[in-house]
Structures are given as C-alpha cells and as structure tokens.
C-alpha cells in the first residue's frame, strides 16, 4: 500500500512561499528537531530567502557548523552558504537568562532594573523555572519577528520532557506571575490591599506564615519585592504570553511536528497534533526522521534469513568453513547454528567484558576467522567460502533492515490511522551525525524529496530499472562528499 | 553498623532524551529484585513512562507492586507527584490537617513548588531518599534497592545537587534540613548515578559532559549503559571484503542460496547492488560506533551494554534486558 500522494508534505513550496514567515519545529526530545530546523533554514536561504534560525540547545558541532558556538543571544550571519539565489542565513542560540535580563532592562528604568536583576528570586526564576526556556524562546521569536529584518524565521523548540510543555509553559509562567496568589502575596507590598479582603487576609497570613516557615522568610520577601517591581514596570506577563499565542496562530506561521518512527515519539507527535488543532494553530505536517528503507524490499526478512542459513549449512556440510574457523566453530552443524541464536554462555571473546552478551547473531558472526588460511591468499579469485560467508552476512543485514522497516511502517500506520489528514514527509536515516553545512544541505534535500524518490520507499523495481531507486541518495552523498564552501 | 552491599542502594538512571533511560531503569529494578529482593522504581517527571512500559494503568502517588522478578523478588513502583509530596511533608512536620487542603485549593502548593524549582527537586529526591532509609518494625530495610528514573543528563546534576539549589532560597528551616539530609544520601557510596547512552555522537558527547558535571558536584557516578546496541552482522574483515568483492561472485553465492539466477539481469544479480549498498551504510555506522566506543572507553567508567530490541520493548523484552544486566554484573 503506497501512501496517498496528497498526504505528502511538500516542504519546498512551504519554504518558497513568501507568505510563510515563521516555521516552528516541535516534537519530543531526541528526534532531530534542532537538526531539522537548521536544515530547513539552510535550504530556504539557498532557495533565496532571508532566514534566521533560532536554536535552543544545539549539539556543539552543529552549532559550530553554523558558526554560532558563541552564546551571545544575537543572530549571526552564517558563512559558506550558496547565496546565488539571493538568500541569507542567520543563526542564533537562545540564552534564556540573557533574554529575560533584556526584557527587564528594556522595560524598567536603570535603577529598578538593577534591583530586579539582583533579586535572588529573579535569579532563580530566570535560570531555572521549568517554563522559562519555553517562555523566553517565544519571547525571542516575538522580538525577531518585530525587527522584521528576515522574511523567514525558523524556530527550534526546547528539549522539554514533553512536546506539550512548549505550548503550556508560557501560559503557566504568565498565569503564575499574574496569578491571584502572587497578587495576594504581594498585596501588602503594594500599599494597602482593598478593604474587602480582610477575611481573606486572615487566611493569607496563616498561609504566608507557613510558606515563610517552609521556604525561609527571606524568599517570600524577595518574591514580593520582585513582583512589585516587575508589576509597575512591565505590562502583565499574561498579556505577553497572549501576544505570543496570537503570533503563533497567525497566517504565515507553520508548525512542523518532528518525530522518529518509534512508538513513544509518534505518540507524543499525535498528542501534539491534537493539541495544535485544539489551539487553532496552523499545522503544516509531520516530519518523520530516520526512516529506514531498502532497495531490495521485495526480498523478505524471512527469505533472506533462510537463504543465509542455506549458505552456512552448505558450507558446513561440505566442510569448507571448518577448515578456516577457530576451534569454537568446528562443530558448525545446523544444531549449533540454532543454539547460537541464544545468548551463548561462553560467547564472544571475553565473557567478563561488558560487550559479551551483545546479540544473538554476533556469536555466529564473530566466528569469522582471524586470519585467512594461506591457500586462500594464494588463490587468484576470492575464496568462495569467504564470499559465501560475506553473502550470508549481507542477507542477515538485509533481514534486519527489513524487520526494522516493517516495524517503522507499523508505527507510522498507527499514527496515520489516527490522523489521516496530516501530511507527512519521511527522511531516510543517515549513518552518521551532521556537523557541517554539507551535511545539513543533505538533510534538507532529503526533507524536501518526495517519498517516491526516496530509496526504499518506492516499490522495489522488478524490471531492470535502476534509475528510480538511488537518485536521492546519490545526489545526497555527492553533496556530502563536497567540502563545505567557506 | 550496617555493612553496605556491593551494589548501592539508590540507583539513579539518567540519559539523553530518546536513549531509553526509563527502560533501563525498569530493567535495572527487575535485575536488582532477582533472587528474592524488593526494589522500588521511582518516577519523578510525571510522564507515566513506567506504567506504559509495564502495561499497567497510570500509577497513583502510592507505592504498589508492579512486577515479580525471577526467584521471588518484587518490583514496586511509585510516581512521585511534587505537590502531593509537599502536602505529605507539611503534614509530617506541621500536622496541618485540613489546612493543607486549603493551601492546595488556594494554589499555594503549586506556588511553592513552582516558585522555587529547587524546592520541587528536594521534595522529589527527598521522597526517594526516604524510601532508601525506610525500615520495617524488625529494623530491616523495606526496599533493598531504590531505582530512580531521573531527569535527562542535561538536568540531572542540577536536580541531584539540591543543596546548591536551595541554598539561595532557604538558608534555614525544614527545607534546608531536608536538603542537607538528602545530600547526605546522594553524595554517599549508597548512591550511584548511571548514564544511558546510544553509540551516537550527540548522546555520547552529552554523556561525557554529564559525567564531568556529576564529578564536579561530587556525586557518585556508576556506569555508562550503552543501550540499543545493534548486532554485529559483519565484522571488519567482512566489511573489507564487501568493499572489494566481485559482484559476479556474490551473485553466484546468492543463486546458490536459492535466490534466483546469477546471470546478468537475473534475480540474484539484481540483489547484489542493493545488498552491498546496505553493507556500505552499515560500514559507515560500524566505524562511527567504534569511534564512540573509544570515546566512552576514555571516560573511565565501567560500561554495560544492552541490545536493541527490534520489535520494541515489551514485558518479555524487559526481563531479557534485566537478565543481561545481571550477567554483566550490574546488579
């Protein structure tokens, strides 16, 4: 069953559309969100747009590749991109404390600002409050948008424990700082609470007493001073949070939910899709990273495994393998074959080493001879035994790949069944991590490629039809080989 | 004086997001319970990951048995809710009674746990440490081991180093004392912090950074658990051969295995290229993983390895992982 082409997420039109002003990449941790954001930013810039990428917590080498390893909270132009289409790429890494400080500095007179910045409660809040990072990311987004220097802003979202934190946190921080309780607590500091609050005040003094005991009286005082100072200088935090929300709901904003084809990541993605719909935030689609495929998809896992067993069994019955293997493999009969699919008690080299119980198949594979027998080296052609062993390995590799592909497809189908109308783009898995612009460019190409072009996603060619299957990959690896243009 | 077991009684499991730390924590709690022991598996981030893993309903803020281990052991689980932990705590020290509920209704509890992130951490770690120290009437420890599914590597040092966290907030008072008591447990040999990683660059880098941070904070680091290790299907020799082998010979070998004709354009011959390309990708990963292994060898901690469960982690898989941890002397 091939995916409906209408449900494919086409990213190039989205990136090229001048109406697209903000792209938000969100999703749970560890799914390649930051890399996706950076790759989209680069692609959009090389297609002619003036882009700024706001990253939250990039891996060091990814940050270095974009020249933003200095954390100075200001967008920097990324060198080395192909500007022939007239685009530019800028990037910055969020410094949440610095962003918070800047808000204070921008809205309070210097004396008051200094008092706030020195307040211990403020310091704890700005560095550690559970939602501060999310809130400041949104604040920064608002600032960048207000400067109107870029025609596309690509935002990464914080590595929260759940993708939903990112939507909840600004509201939480806003309502916390603007909340009833904090107002009540700070009422005494604001000279004369209303008369009608007398009754409540009795309860309040009990409560502040308890909290004071618990937290130490000084903290409460710090909070009161802080809120009083903030309140008179800043507009309400809730108001700012609401403005951010409106910005996210506005046309021109596109949310991309990033996930990997794993159960947990896709469950998070499904929650998030539902949440965006509930908040009337514009979802562009799902980016499914690290998808595996195979160009030999017509050879099933079971058949590949059986063929590998045939090869090994043939060799062992003709005694060819036995000549070359160490003592352990001497009894390489079908019997030991099957028993070696259990973790062998005396398995790989050093049973005491942590590496020992690694895998079922490893036992079998590591029995490959350490050194080739002399006659094998003499032979002109490659020893058929060696080739058979290699072929058996290739077939097992393929079987593993096919099983993974099937599992990923099942997981994906589960998501699609729940959300059939969410467009999806799949990004083939890379063997390594990305640490230069060439790598990002490669990811960008994979992101934008339609599924039909992706290796292994198309139906395996039964005819002598080589072209469809590797175009993307070869292009990609050609780009990867090219040195970063600096 | 009670002699400490070889294995620390509080086992904290952290790791970068997506490395499977909840799975490892659960497998560890099973491994430690094997042979008639009782362990408590503690969740602190309110994600209900443990319930999902064991296929049970959402865990309440209450210790309950969720699994039996081989040899008569028991795994109990607890999802700590910071608000309820604070109420518990207030109850214990101030005998608040209904006033506690009133505080909750007013939002004071929410306020107190959000106003001071350190406070929440003290409550969470405090609850775990209380379980570590708890004894029954006969004076025996109620739990032989407590395993904590902790926040991710990037936040775990801050989370555990509650003393520093609350120092600026509560210089005196019960929270201050509580923090002191918690740090007493966390910095002692009773505790070990394990980091879960994958054989990929970013998680390995984060693990190395995390270890440095934990050490700088004087927190006892235990092991690195390399998770989701994929099977070695072709070793270095095989990969070298894959790079130089003649396609015709592989085709012949495939044909011999019953996968069609080896002639040009035959079914077997058409498989050769895709299969060799998969081997190339595999080789790239193999090299990368070996490099990451070298980095991990450099951090100077014992390693443990767990295989990738291709079909996802189910209960049977969890028991399998627990057995592997035992084999590697982790428990």
TrEMBL record, chain A:
Any Pfam family hit: ArsA_ATPase
Superkingdom of this protein's organism: Bacteria
Region (Disordered): 311-363, 448-486
Bias (Basic and acidic residues) ranges: 466-476
Residues of the signal peptide: none
SUPFAM superfamilies: P-loop containing nucleoside triphosphate hydrolases
CDD domains, per the entry: ArsA (cd02035)
Compositionally biased spans, kind Polar residues: 333-342, 477-486
Biased composition (Pro residues): 345-354
ArsA/GET3 Anion-transporting ATPase-like domain mapped to chain residues: 20-292
Name of the molecule in the record: ArsA family ATPase
Organism: Streptomyces fragilis
């Amino acid at each position: 069953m091939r995916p409906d082409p209408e449900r494919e997420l086409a990213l190039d039109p989205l990136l090229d559309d001048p109406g697209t002003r903000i792209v938000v990449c969100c999703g749970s941790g560890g799914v390649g969100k930051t890399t996706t954001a950076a790759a989209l930013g680069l692609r959009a810039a090389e297609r002619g747009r003036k882009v700024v990428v706001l990253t939250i917590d990039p891996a060091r080498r990814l940050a270095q590749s974009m020249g933003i390893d200095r954390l100075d909270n200001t967008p920097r132009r990324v060198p080395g991109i192909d500007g022939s289409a007239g685009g530019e790429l800028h990037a910055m890494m969020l410094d949440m404390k610095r962003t918070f400080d800047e808000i204070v500095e921008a809205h309070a007179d210097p004396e008051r600002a200094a008092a706030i910045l020195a307040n211990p409660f403020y310091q704890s809040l700005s560095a550690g409050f559970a939602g501060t990072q999310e809130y400041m990311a949104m604040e920064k987004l608002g600032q960048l948008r207000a400067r109107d220097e870029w025609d596309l802003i690509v935002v990464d979202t914080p590595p929260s424990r759940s993708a939903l934190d990112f939507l909840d946190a600004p509201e939480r921080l806003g309502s916390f700082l603007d909340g009833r309780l904090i107002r009540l607590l700070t009422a005494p500091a604001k000279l004369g609470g209303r008369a009608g609050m007398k009754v409540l005040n009795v309860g309040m003094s009990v409560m502040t007493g308890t909290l004071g005991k618990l937290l130490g009286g000084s903290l409460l005082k710090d909070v009161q001073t802080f809120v009083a100072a903030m309140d008179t200088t800043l507009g309400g935090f809730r108001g700012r949070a609401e403005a951010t929300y409106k910005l996210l709901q506005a046309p021109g904003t596109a949310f991309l939910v990033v996930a990997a084809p794993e159960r947990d990541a896709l469950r998070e993605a499904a929650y998030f899709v539902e949440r965006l719909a509930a908040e009337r935030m514009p979802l562009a689609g799902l980016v499914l990273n690290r998808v595996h495929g195979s160009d030999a998809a017509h050879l099933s896992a079971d058949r590949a495994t059986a063929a590998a067993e045939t090869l090994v069994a043939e060799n062992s019955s003709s005694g060819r393998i036995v000549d070359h293997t160490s003592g352990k493999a001497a009894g390489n009969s079908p019997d030991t074959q099957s028993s070696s699919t259990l973790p062998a008690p005396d398995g790989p080299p050093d049973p005491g080493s942590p590496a020992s119980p690694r895998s079922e198949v490893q036992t079998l594979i590591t029995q490959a001879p350490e050194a080739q027998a002399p006659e094998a080296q003499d032979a002109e052609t490659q020893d058929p035994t060696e080739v058979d062993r290699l072929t058996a390995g290739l077939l097992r590799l393929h079987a593993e790949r096919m099983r993974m592909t099937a599992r990923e497809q099942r997981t994906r189908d589960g998501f699609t069944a729940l959300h059939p109308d969410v467009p999806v783009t799949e990004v083939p898995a890379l063997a390594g991590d990305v640490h230069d612009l060439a790598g990002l460019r490669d990811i960008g190409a994979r992101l934008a490629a339609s599924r039909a072009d992706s290796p292994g996603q198309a139906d395996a060619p039964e005819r002598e039809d080589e072209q469809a299957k590797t175009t993307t990959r070869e292009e990609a690896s050609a780009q990867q080989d090219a040195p970063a243009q600096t | 004086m009670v002699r400490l077991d070889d294995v620390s009684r509080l086992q904290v499991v952290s790791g970068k997001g997506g490395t499977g730390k909840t799975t490892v924590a659960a497998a560890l709690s099973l491994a430690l319970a094997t042979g008639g022991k009782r362990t408590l598996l503690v969740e602190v981030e309110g994600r209900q990951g443990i319930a999902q893993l064991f296929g049970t309903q959402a865990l309440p803020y209450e210790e309950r048995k969720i699994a039996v281990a081989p040899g008569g052991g028991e795994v109990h689980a607890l999802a700590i809710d910071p608000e309820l932990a604070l109420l518990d705590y207030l109850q214990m020290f101030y005998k608040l009674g209904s006033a506690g509920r009133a505080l909750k209704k007013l939002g004071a509890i929410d306020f107190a746990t959000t106003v001071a992130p350190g406070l929440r951490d003290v409550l969470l770690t405090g609850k775990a440490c209380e379980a570590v120290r708890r004894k029954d009437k006969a004076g025996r420890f109620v739990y032989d081991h407590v395993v904590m599914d902790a926040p991710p590597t990037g936040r775990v040092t801050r989370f555990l180093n509650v003393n520093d966290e609350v120092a600026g907030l509560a210089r005196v008072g019960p929270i201050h004392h509580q923090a002191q008591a918690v740090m007493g447990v966390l910095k002692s040999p009773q505790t070990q912090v394990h980091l879960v990683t994958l054989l990929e660059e970013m998680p390995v880098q984060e693990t190395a950074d995390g270890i440095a941070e934990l050490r700088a904070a004087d927190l006892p680091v235990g092991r690195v658990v390399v998770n989701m290790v994929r099977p070695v299907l072709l070793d270095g020799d095989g990969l070298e051969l894959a790079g130089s082998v003649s396609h015709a010979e592989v085709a012949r070998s495939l044909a011999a295995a019953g996968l069609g004709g080896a002639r040009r354009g035959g079914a077997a011959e058409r498989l050769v290229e895709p299969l060799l390309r998969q081997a190339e990708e595999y080789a790239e990963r193999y090299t990368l993983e070996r490099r990451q292994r070298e980095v991990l060898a450099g951090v100077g901690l014992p390693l443990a390895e767990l295989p990738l469960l291709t079909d996802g982690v189910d209960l049977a898989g969890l028991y399998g992982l627990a057995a592997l941890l035992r084999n590697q002397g982790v428990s």
